Amino acid sequence: MHSGPTKYAMAYVDWIKDDDRFSDILVQISPTTTGHAFPRLRVRYKSSLVQVEGGTSDLPLLDPNVRATPLAPFEWRERLQAMNKAGKPFSQEDALFLGRKSLLLDVRNGYEWDVGHFQGAERPNVDSFRNTTFGLSGQEEVASDPLALIDKENTDILMYCTGGIRCDVFSAILRQKGFRNLYTLSGGVSNYLKNEGPADWVGNLFVFDSRLSLPPSAYKPEAIAETSPKIIFEGSTFARCYLCGSELLVFRHRNCANIDCNFLFLSCKTCVDKFRGCCSLECKDAPRLRPVLPGHQRYQKWHLYRDGVLQSKSKV
Ligand SMILES: [Zn+2]
Ligand SMILES: [Zn+2]
Fold first, then answer.
1. Which domain holds residue 171?
2. Which domain of life is it from (predicted)?
3. pLDDT (average), residues 91-106
4. For residue range 115-163, what is the model confidence (pLDDT) as tens digits?
5. How far is the CA of 257 from the centre of ligand 2 (A)?
6. CATH number of the domain that residue 198 is part of
7. How many domains does the chain have?
8. For the CA of 258, the nearest ligand
9. I need a surface site. Which of 74, 155, 166, 172 has the fewest CB within 10 A?
């Protein structure tokens, strides 16, 4: 990932694409209104971009036969709309597309679903993708695993994530578990919003940088938000304050002010004041509290708070 003025970013893209190995690479561009999305350039070797339990080194990620079938954004939209027409909530239920059963699977983290997701996708019951057990569970976890009881041979699994990479890894895992019909949204949600606009999407897209979340209009400004009904389910965490359950208008996360917790959560303004920027009463009384973030931004590196600015209870 790279951020910079469009002109330089595009020059970089051209340079990459000049190399035959990368000539057909999918390039994704997303705007920022607050300066650099990645203010500090760091070049580091990472053996794997996606962290999963057990590591990715044993997964046949480069084997084309293992990959899920990528669907272009318009194909994805057609599939979703066909599922919608089947008239049922199409996550756990069987939905029909050309006579086939389909399951829509959000393979991101639960907190990402909380600010936006495809209509009908269930909230992943994991706080972190690396711990996900979908499709891998034993008998006892069946209730929380949407893949536990499905017909591996005859169900189409439609997976999506932010940029498509997590799906590539997850599809390799599912393939090894015997799931036959795997589909991914090519380029992920960011590519979808850019091409199709907010059709069948509810809310914003969580992003892993200082911008936290982006509305669909950031990807396709000319798309007029179709009457995408804001469906708030009873007991759902979508667009809700984690603390009081009130409905939120701004879909931006914050980290718990307790440096030893750091939980990423959604909070209304009242609860930010009441809980002192923390995620719970317990954290509010924790010994190592950072200052309350005034707006929707991230904390800086933890060591900046370690020496000095930490507001431990004893000092207050
Ligand atoms: Zn609240
Ligand atoms: Zn906390």
1. 53-218
2. Eukaryota
3. 63
4. 999 988 888 876 555 555 666 555 555 556 777 777 888 889 999 999 8
5. 7
6. 3.40.250.10
7. 2
8. 2
9. 74
Q: Which ligand is nearest to the CA of 270?
A: 1
The arithmetic mean of pLDDT across residues 10-16, rounded, is 92
* Structure confidence by residue, pLDDT tens digits, 31-64: 777 677 777 777 788 766 676 766 777 777 778 7
Q: How much distance in Å is there from the Cα of 275 to the middle of ligand 1? A: 9
DSSP-based three-state secondary structure for 228: coil
Task: Tokens for 304, please give them.
Answer: 């900046």
Residues 69 and 200 in one domain: yes
- The pLDDT of residue 49 is 67
Is residue 25 one of the residues assigned to a domain? no
Q: How far is the CA of 67 from the centre of ligand 2 (A)?
A: 38
Same domain assignment for residues 84 and 213: yes
Between the CA of 245 and the centroid of ligand 1 the distance, in Å, is 6
Ligand number, closest to the Cα atom of 266: 1
Which of the ligands is closest to the CA of residue 265?
2
Residues 251 and 223 sit within 8 Å (Cβ to Cβ): no
Residues tagged active-site: 161
Q: Is residue 231 part of a domain?
A: no
| CB neighbour list of residue 106: distance below 8 Å, 6 or more residues apart | 112, 113, 117, 118, 121, 122, 123, 124, 160, 161
pLDDT (0 to 100) of residue 45: 80
Residue 199's pLDDT is 87
pLDDT computed for residue 90 by the predictor: 44
* 202 band by pLDDT with thresholds 50, 70 and 90: confident
CB atoms within 10 A of CB 178: 9
Q: Give distance in angstroms: CA of 289 to centre of ligand 2.
A: 10
Both 87 and 167 in a single domain? yes
